[in-house]
Amino acid sequence: MSRPQDPPRPFISFGNPFRMILPKGSNLSPKLLNLLNSFENALAGRLKKLKPSVREDVLNLSWMRSAMESLCGIHTDIKTLITALELPVSDWDEKWLDVYLDNSVKLLDICNAFSSEISRLNQGHLYLQCALHNLGSASPKQFVRARSSLDGWRQHTSSKNPRLDNCFSIMDSLAQTLDLPKIKNSAKGKVLMGAMFGVKVVTLFVCSIFAAALSGSTKKLMDLHVPETCLWAEAFADVQTFVNTEIRIIYSSQRVTVVKELEAVDMGVKKLYSIVQDEVDVTVDPIEAELLQKSTSDLEMSARNYAQGLDLLAKEVDSFFQIVLTGRDALLSNLRIGGNISNPIKSNNIEGQTVR
């Protein structure tokens, strides 16, 4: 499963979004400024909580679940902001609608790619269960079967998921459109676009981490530069530097994966495989029997933690999918009622929403 280290990607820089959204000389009312500041401060708070307390937590499935929970919260926050702005969908500029609809359909496709990979990894757990079941007996025949199951696990986890490749191209297209449309005559629109910028950047950051973790490569690990005018810029730079640096260190050390639970299982499989490969008669060698029992017990525990972590992560990815989907559906429904919609962007992959 080892892969060569990918060269670091340069910072993805883009123009100051607030220079376009809030041009020089423009002022927001105290109410609108308070709404935007409250949203940005909340975003900064979520980012601070997202930074792991210790490097060992980058990346484990628990942290990945927390990252997805944060995304769910951030996307819920923007819905709350839109409601507070009292900006009817019928008043949305066509450019805003294009941004929202295009981004949402891309996020749905990214979720489908992640869900597909999590499901594939979960299926590999069956090989571990078979191996552990066969090791319940010390007969040579069962050793052969256990070895075959462990071989199946190794082949399964080292294979590639083509759906992730499509995910990479989608992320690249999102990164190329981080600059938001210029807002001329709508103060509420400026607040909306400013908040959407924050949502888009943080979403792309988390998705790039997931892509690196699930693909086994830092090729798509992004470094995004946020203008200092954003109240959440410092918190974002802090967590991005911390997490991305640690991921690159892990891969440069030739470790098989940044996902800690998967790494624990992989190490357990290697230890157990060396025992069953030698076909030692544990019925007459108490030392080997004790080693087999301990290795089997260790793998059983790490496999259980891995499977539970994947299940919880799958549920969070599904929750994020549903939040994006319901927000998109609500917008399209309002547009239809207002008679202001034609040929909405559609995902080619909505049917792939099932996580498990």
TrEMBL record:
<keyword id="KW-0812">Transmembrane</keyword>
<keyword id="KW-0472">Membrane</keyword>
<feature type="transmembrane region" description="Helical">
    <location>
        <begin position="191"/>
        <end position="214"/>
    </location>
</feature>
<dbReference type="Pfam" id="PF03087">
    <property type="entry name" value="BPS1"/>
</dbReference>
<protein>
    <submittedName>
        <fullName>Uncharacterized protein</fullName>
    </submittedName>
</protein>
<dbReference type="InterPro" id="IPR004320">
    <property type="entry name" value="BPS1_pln"/>
</dbReference>
<keyword id="KW-1133">Transmembrane helix</keyword>
